[in-house]
Amino acid sequence: MTIRVRREDVIPNPSEPTSVRAHVCVVASLNFPGINEHDAGLVRRFTRTALATLVSLGASFELWDTTQPLENPEAAADFDGLLLLGGGDVDGSCYGSCEPIPNSYGVDLRADRDAFAVIAAAEAAGRPIFGICRGSQLLNVARGGSLIGDIVDYKLHHGGPGEPVFVDEPIDVVPGTRLRSILGTDRVIGRNGHHQAVDRLGRGLVVAARALDGITEGVEDPDRFYLGVQWHPEDTDGPEADRMRLFEAFVGAAEQARQSRALAAAPAE
Fold this sequence. Notes:
Elements: H1 7-10, E1 22-28, H2 37-56, E2 59-65, E3 81-84, H3 109-124, E4 129-132, H4 134-142, E5 147-148, E6 167-173, H5 178-183, E7 187-192, E8 197-198, E9 206-211, E10 216-220, E11 226-229, H6 240-265
GO molecular function: gamma-glutamyl-gamma-aminobutyrate hydrolase activity; transferase activity
Organism: Mycolicibacterium smegmatis (strain MKD8) (Mycobacterium smegmatis)
GO biological process, one term: polyamine catabolic process
């Protein structure tokens, strides 16, 4: 596999908060099969922004890059929260698709399996989980859901041939959801460049946001912080306020998990 993105390319400065509210496991595929320099530039920018946002909100992090096999995915349970970032497509075999998928790119079944093991460990430990783009799709597939392999009428979701890949997409947020309470509005403008999306919902999940054509743009578990958004709030070309609201909600949930663990570990008086 070609290595275009190095770990040092994405670590922000400062890389640690002055005061730690929570310690977060961040899973990303900095490189994937077929990655080109354009994709690498997006990975660098988006990952660095996501990590810098965590630090600005008081969260320390450990970056797990699934470019290489993870040594101990189960250790995700030792963190206060789990953040899953974007990358290549999820292998169709993970959700029962046996046919070739048009426009498929960046598929890495081993990286998918590592990510599913991390999700399982974090969920079993009761940690808050937040997924972006590929991360949101992984959360759905981890619960037994499926994906639309290739969106045929794609114009709302990404640019056409010879055009910029990313577009500003209006997204409707479903009333009564956790996502609606976080964002505080019924519609956001998301930065999108995706050709796949959630199809059949995974166990216990509900739609939290939809595109104007009805495509699912957000999923969540109403009973716990298990939240995914299809768009890229960590794109600096998009609204900073929405990014901060989403990351603050996640860091706040991780902080609560940290406090609950501390109370459970404290000796009884």
